[in-house]
């Protein structure tokens, strides 16, 4: 396979609602896309589960579609997907029960037990994170305490994307970025923490081998090839958790530029050359998909989700108008909000509809409009939502910078990035130049970049990114408006005092 023949790569993302795949060449040109949905199960309030077989059967269809569109066999496959979930397998590799997902809230007691057993400060020092209900380790303890028959059969625990690797190859493996979200990884060693495993009585051989993200971990087996259309022996690289993969695809592989994503949730993701865990536990510190490096990440659970909630539950009149005009409802709402002065006439919105992570780490936090008066209307309420989300993301950026990681520019991703009004607000609140992320393929595209490195198509992640990632030009960045910056600075300071005041009043 030499000469000028272009090399093809496949990336597969096992998301919460769907599997998405992309076929690209070694220059980063997208040749084909494929996707398929699967159900989410909520057997009880606060519980979220999925059947790993649903992931696999959907992945089979996606990979078959991409394989058929490839002019030559792909030289490598990269995997990514939703983080933190737990797939429980027995000694025969059979599924014991449905997978428990990242947004499941059943493990509060297990989190308390972990911090009591390991020690809160030690846990944060070793893993870079506090014990949160979404992480994988509390799910293992929950299984032990609540489903002892299932626990007695347990032989393997996998993350979602790694179950697909197992079905493709028969190999148990994971990558450092996804493993860092289990609460079982030693950040400095970039391997499982024997100290934590011993304290929690979790056998090391239940866990897959840990690799750096671009390293080859397995090859597609005859059985995997038969059902997916991939060639037997196709290398499978370790891959990455979805946020790290998306960052690679967007070029966030060195200091200076951070990613701010506004999807249903909001994320501020910053590369760091060293592990810098936040002692307060208000930030996540994970291994990055770039070997030997790390990333800091703040999460707001209802960013775009807050605007979507308003659109679904309150803006029925605007929805009818948008439908009649053939316009996007979110764009119409933002345009109307732009007719309101900055600050929404002193109306604030706390975007905690789903609880909150950074900085409050409170699953019981709730949203609120504060300052609502007879003079306000729906335009003010939407403006307050846009500003409140921006303030909540500023909470994350402020804490990232306090760790000594100070980005000069910000790339914006997710649906909210396409709102010109929201971009202007974000630039001013965050006080950084912003540009829309050029890659819209998401984590699956980042997985192809990692696959290219594993296959030897590119020498390292930085070289692959320079060739394949689509970065905005300097002229594409929108600089913050100085008057808006001055307007929002004191408003943000007031915003930071609102939730503590409300919480103390409980």
Count, helices:
18
The overall pLDDT, averaged over residues, is 94
The residue fraction in helices comes out at 25-40%
Count of spatially separate domains: 2
Name of the CATH class of the largest domain: Alpha Beta
State the end-to-end distance: 67 Å
Spell out the CATH superfamily of the largest domain. Answer: ATPase, nucleotide binding domain
What characterizes the major β-sheet? 6 strands, mixed
The radius of gyration is: 22 Å
Fold-level CATH name of the largest domain: Nucleotidyltransferase, domain 5
CATH architecture of the largest domain: 2-Layer Sandwich
> What strand order characterises the main sheet?
18-19-17-16-22-23
**Proportion of strand residues:** 15-25%
Number of strands: 23
Molecular structure report:
By secondary structure, the chain is α/β, with parallel strands linked by helices. It has 2 domains: 8-250, ATPase, nucleotide binding domain (Nucleotidyltransferase, domain 5, 2-Layer Sandwich); 304-437 and 474-504, 2-Layer Sandwich (Nucleotidyltransferase, domain 5), CATH 3.30.420. The chain is 39% helix and 19% strand. The protein has 18 helices and 23 strands. It has a 6-stranded mixed sheet, sandwiched between helices. It has a 5-stranded mixed sheet with strand order 3-2-1-5-15, with helices on both faces. A two-stranded antiparallel sheet has the order 4-7. Helix 15 (420-430) links the parallel strand 22 and strand 23 (434-436). Helix 10 crosses helix 16 (443-454), helix 11 (304-313) packs antiparallel against helix 14 (378-402) and helix 15 crosses helix 18 (482-504). The longest helix is centred in the last third of the chain and has 25 residues, at 378-402.
């Amino acid at each position: 396979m030499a000469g000028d023949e272009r090399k093809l790569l496949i990336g597969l993302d096992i998301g919460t609602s769907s599997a998405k795949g992309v076929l690209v060449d070694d220059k980063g040109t997208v040749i084909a896309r494929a996707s398929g949905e699967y159900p989410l199960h909520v057997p009880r309030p606060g519980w979220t589960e999925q059947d790993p077989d649903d992931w696999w059967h959907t992945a089979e269809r996606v990979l078959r579609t991409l394989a058929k569109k490839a002019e030559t066999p792909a030289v490598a496959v990269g995997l990514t997907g939703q983080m933190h979930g737990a797939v429980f397998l027995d000694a025969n590799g059979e599924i014991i029960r449905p997978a428990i997902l990242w947004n499941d809230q059943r493990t509060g007691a297990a989190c308390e037990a972990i911090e009591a057993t390991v020690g809160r400060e030690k846990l944060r020092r070793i893993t870079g994170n506090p014990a949160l209900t979404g992480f994988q380790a509390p799910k293992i303890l929950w299984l032990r305490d609540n489903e002892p028959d299932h626990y007695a059969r347990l032989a393997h625990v996998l993350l979602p994307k790694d179950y697909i690797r197992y079905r493709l190859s028969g190999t148990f493996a994971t990558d450092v970025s996804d493993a860092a979200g289990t609460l079982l990884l030693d950040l400095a060693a970039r391997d499982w923490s024997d100290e934590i495993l011993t304290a929690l009585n979790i056998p090391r051989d239940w866990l897959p081998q840990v690799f750096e993200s671009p390293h080859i971990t397995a090859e597609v087996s005859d059985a995997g090839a038969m059902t997916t259309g991939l060639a037997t022996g196709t290398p499978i690289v370790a891959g990455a958790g979805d946020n790290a993969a998306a960052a690679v695809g967007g070029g966030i592989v060195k200091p200076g530029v951070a990613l701010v994503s506004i999807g249903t949730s909001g994320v501020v993701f910053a590369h760091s050359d060293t592990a810098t865990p936040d002692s307060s536990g208000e930030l996540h510190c994970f291994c990055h998909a770039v070997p030997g490096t790390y990333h800091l990440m703040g999460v707001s659970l209802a960013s775009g989700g807050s605007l979507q909630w308003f659109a679904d539950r309150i803006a029925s009149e605007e929805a009818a108008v948008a439908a009649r005009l053939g316009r996007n409802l979110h764009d119409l709402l933002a345009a109307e909000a732009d007719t309101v002065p900055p600050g929404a006439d002193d109306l604030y919105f706390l975007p905690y509809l789903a609880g909150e992570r950074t900085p409050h780490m409170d699953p019981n936090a709730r949203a609120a409009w504060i300052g609502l008066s007879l003079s306000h209307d729906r335009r003010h309420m939407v403006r307050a939502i846009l500003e409140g989300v921006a303030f909540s993301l500023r909470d994350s950026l402020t804490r990232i910078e306090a760790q000594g990681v100070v980005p000069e520019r910000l790339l914006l991703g997710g649906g909210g990035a396409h709102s010109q009004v929201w971009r202007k607000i974000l630039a001013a609140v965050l006080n950084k130049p912003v540009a829309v992320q050029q890659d819209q393929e998401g984590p699956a595209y980042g997985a192809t970049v990692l696959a290219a490195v594993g296959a030897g198509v590119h020498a390292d992640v930085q070289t692959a990114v320079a060739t394949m990632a689509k970065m905005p030009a300097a002229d594409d960045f929108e600089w913050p408006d100085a008057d808006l910056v001055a307007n929002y600075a004191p408003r943000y300071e007031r915003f930071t005092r609102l939730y503590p005041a409300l919480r103390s009043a409980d």
